Amino acid sequence: MNQPTHQHQNNLKAIATIGALFFIFGFVTWANSTLIPFLKLALNLKTDLEAFFVTFASYMAYFFLALPSSWILKKIGFRNGIIVGLLILGLGSLIFIPAADTKSYGLFLTGIFIQGAALALLQTASNPYISIIGPIESAAKRISIMGLCNKFAGIIVPIIMGSIFLKNSEAITEKINNVATTVAEKEALLTEILNRVHTPYITLAIVFTLFAIVIRFSNLPEVDVDKEEVVADDATHTAKTSIFQFPHLFLGAFCIFVYVAAEVMAGDIIGIYAKEFNLNLYITTIKITDTITIPLYYTTLTLASMLVGYFIGVYTIPKYITQQAALKICAIVGLLFTIGAFATHGYTSVIFVALLGLANSLMWPAIFPLGIKGLGKFTKTGSAIMIMGIAGGAIWPLIYGVLKDKLHVDFQLSFFISMMPCYLFILYFAMAGHKVGLKNLHIEKRV
Questions:
Q1: What is the dihedral of CA 118, 14, 78, 85, to 10 degrees?
Q2: What gap in Å lies between CA 39 and CA 219, rounded to an integer?
Q3: Which of 281, 304, 389, 446 is least surrounded by CB atoms within 10 angstroms?
């Protein structure tokens, strides 16, 4: 077997392994869309704003843990970093058990934050790895393939978790709010709901641990980006010495910030948005047998839209369009669908929100490689800074909640105000921001 063929096979194995990781990212992350209404019901939270601290705890972990994750990866390497991340992810899942038993929202948020910390480590390792393992010009295509794995998990997790956590939720809510229901009966109902947490999260902890063992005995090729490239300025012929000499990186990190904000609003908040129109938490049910039906949640529609977009990206990038062209198109589509959601009502408005998944689909695959382009030995640190931008998913639902619940702005206008700046900045980054500071950049391989 010749060397290129052997290298190609190793790369395919690595891509398959990272694909499995992205499936896990999607499953854990998009479980938030179910946890928001579930914990609001089970813990009797009074406002949507309180429930949105689920996404705050999850995504804020990226802000605090991304740079430490970069340091950890430098010390222990890519494969060991994945193993540690998976074990921490399992620990976060197990914390859900005492949280349910004690009915502690704070403990639930702690478990979610620990899961987010684990995902920060895993994402800081995986995204630059999948970007660099092949040509940077086709990085968006490879990340789109990862996105297919991620969003497929996102499609099925609301169905699986929703069927477990939100079963008979409408009837239970009616009973809890019924003045004839005694305090003891209400407590019994809430206890029964919270006990639903045990089996799925114990199962997830076992799965994460088993996958860590698989990774331990796998043969993933290492990519040492610190030794691959020297980055210099063509105009001065001086080597770059600081991460702060790459303005396009920080613009890219903020672009990730507003992109994740828009993605979370379209994916995690859509069920709450639909409830404002007095619609069910799910759009319809799929009949499996005469006695079994599966609810189709709105988040599933958003993620299905994203899946379509990823298929388009895999087929078209870079063969027909560039990464930045795809990003520009997606930003414009996001602006149009946001206007559509604001200008319509009921199911039509909710469908426009779900279609934002299509607009958001190719944003991460395009933004991430554009943000780390040309960083050379600074790639790991730059990737961590990009990952910090995921904190946008923590902040934006709270902004929406404050506008709606505290300032009493109409929920559709609140959504519009929240989303438009995100897509406008993404459009700027696609058109000009990704080129800032790169005009005279020269990259050469070390010998």
A1: 20
A2: 40
A3: 446
- Residues 19, 151: Cα–Cα separation, whole Å: 11
Distances (CA, A) of 446 to 132, 231, 232, 241, 381: 16, 10, 12, 16, 19
Q: In the structure, what pLDDT confidence band is assigned to residue 423 with cuts at 50, 70 and 90?
A: very high
Averaged pLDDT, 304-319: 83
pLDDT digits (tens, 9 = 90+) for 141-192: 777 788 788 878 888 888 888 888 877 777 777 777 776 677 888 888 888 8
Question: What's the one-letter identity of residue 340?
Answer: G
The DSSP secondary structure of 95-143, one letter per residue, reads THHHHHHHT-HHHHHHHHHHHHHHHHHHHHHHHHHHHHSS-GGGHHHHH
Q: Count the neighbouring beta carbons within 10 Å of the beta carbon of residue 6.
A: 10
Looking at the chain, the whole-number percentage of residues with pLDDT higher than 90 is: 40
In contact, 37 and 362? CB cutoff 8 Å: no
Which pLDDT does position 310 carry in this prediction?
Answer: 82
